[in-house]
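Q: What residues go here?
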């Protein structure tokens, strides 16, 4: 099973972005979404170090709520 996580773009350096989610920062490749116009403040779905798509704030929040429910259920 693959899992993509929503993250907020906090900085961009060339084709890499610094992204943050729930206090964790990661360097994320933007190669797969070239030409999407991603900018600081946007949200992306990240999987194994690659941004897969730009999403809205609302989509990021809904995804985090669902992931939190899964974690709570498993505990």
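A:
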């Amino acid at each position: 099973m693959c899992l993509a996580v929503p993250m907020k773009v906090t900085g961009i350096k060339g084709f890499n972005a610094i992204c943050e989610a729930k206090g964790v920062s990661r360097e994320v490749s933007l190669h797969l979404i070239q030409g999407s116009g991603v900018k600081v403040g946007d949200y992306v779905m990240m999987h194994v170090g690659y941004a897969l798509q730009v999403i809205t704030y609302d989509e990021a929040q809904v995804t985090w709520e669902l992931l939190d429910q899964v974690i709570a259920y498993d505990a």
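A: Context that may help when evaluating the design: The two ends are 19 Å apart (CA to CA). The longest strand covers residues 5-13.
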